[in-house]
Design a protein that fits this description.
By secondary structure, this protein is an alpha+beta fold. The protein has helices spanning 2-13, 20-30, 37-45, 49-80, 104-118, 132-135, 169-178, 219-234, 287-290, 312-320, 333-336, and strands at residues 122-123, 129-131, 162-164, 183-192, 204-215, 240-247, 250-259, 276-285, 303-311. The structure holds 3,4-dihydroxyphenylalanine.
Length: 344
């Protein structure tokens, strides 16, 4: 008995389990009913009372040592493999993941879209990569016309034919070519300008373009739809103002201002003490642009239309009193998480 115990002790002292195969061999020899221990205990029973007292505890000790080795091996695995870190109580509730939220620009875009949908517009999406033709030429920006410089462009090809659209008006042209009037569409989307990024300007931003083409569409319709929009978005007391302006693709053209809601037109830093905030451009579609309407009746003069372009960033800044454009693309969770409880 003494020899056997000594040999097993030595064997256990030298155990070094390296892999699943080693674990299997170790368990086969030292753990369970088929291990070396049951025969050893069977032998012990047959010994004299004094021998039992001497060797019994020694065998128990060996058995415990084997259990200890197995436990340590399992512990070391837990630290290595994350799967072993699973809580043993599987009925515990799972840990929750924080729910994401929509970006404030998306929230505002959705809200704007909903207002226009209620007013009979449908949504169309255009490509951010455009041709010079759609972005400029067809919109009555002649080559070398200084108006092209007002929108610093990211060109994608050396011949300057392909570019990142500088305004959603580029998609307007595609719709004019594709659909027959009457139609009313809004085009939400991202636009790009080659500008230095500051708190008031960015190299990409978002617009919602609107067009309405049909018989007898007039400036009064344009003014009405913009007023409806401004009051639905900013509140029923909101006033609008259309200031004469210039865009090559509209005639007459106007800049759309809304009354400053933050100071009730008294003058504040948001409205630069004027009581009014500029939110976009608009006008009656220029006959040269309108001439591209496909499938129009032979009498092309039958149709007129208006268009407008609203800045989504501007609307969002007014809605949430944000003063720096750059925060929209900073990916700062402290800023973004403030919007996560707003309707998802
Ligand atoms: N495309 C113009 C811009 O980005 C905005 C604009 C002005 C759009 C007048 C229009 C419009 O549709 O009629 O600055």
């Amino acid at each position: 008995m003494k020899e056997k115990i000594k040999a097993l002790k030595e064997e256990l002292n030298n155990v070094n389990i390296q892999d699943p195969e080693g674990l299997k061999n170790f368990c086969a020899r030292f753990i369970g009913s088929k291990s070396v221990f049951p025969p050893l205990f069977a032998e012990l029973v047959k010994l004299s009372q004094t021998d039992k007292k001497q060797w019994g505890p020694k065998i128990q000790e060996l058995k415990q040592q084997a259990q200890e080795i197995l436990k340590n091996y399992n512990e070391s695995l837990k630290n290595k493999d994350p799967r072993f870190l699973a809580p043993t109580d599987l009925s515990l509730p799972a840990s929750t993941q924080p729910l994401g939220g929509r970006h404030p620009l998306s929230l505002v875009q959705r809200e704007m879209e909903k207002i226009f949908l209620k007013n009979g517009f449908s949504i169309k999406n255009g490509s951010e990569i455009e041709t010079d033709e759609h972005n400029f030429t067809a919109l009555n920006f002649p080559t070398d016309h200084p108006a092209r410089d007002s929108q610093d462009t990211f060109f994608l090809s050396k011949d300057k034919n392909y570019l990142l659209r500088t305004h959603t008006s580029a998609t307007q042209v595609r719709l004019l070519k594709k659909y027959s009037p009457p139609f009313k569409y809004i085009i939400p989307g991202r636009v790009y300008r080659n500008e230095t990024v500051t708190s008031r300007a960015h190299c990409f931003f978002h617009q919602i373009e609107g067009i309405n083409i049909g018989e007898g569409i007039s400036f009064a319709h344009l003014k009405y739809v913009l007023l409806r929009f401004a009051q639905a978005f900013f509140g029923s007391k909101t006033k609008i103002r259309l200031r004469p302006s210039y865009f090559p693709f509209t005639e007459p053209s106007a800049e759309l201002d809304i009354s400053c809601l933050l100071c009730q037109e008294k003058g504040c830093s948001i409205c630069k003490k004027t009581g009014w905030v500029e939110v976009g451009g608009c006008g009656m579609i220029h006959p040269r642009v309108l001439a591209q309407v496909q499938n129009a009746s032979k009498d092309k003069t039958k149709y007129t239309g208006y268009a407008f372009g609203l800045g989504i960033e501007r609307m969002t800044m007014l809605r949430y009193q944000i003063h720096d454009l750059r925060i929209f693309s900073a990916n700062d969770i402290r800023f973004l998480s403030q919007f996560s409880t707003v309707h998802i």
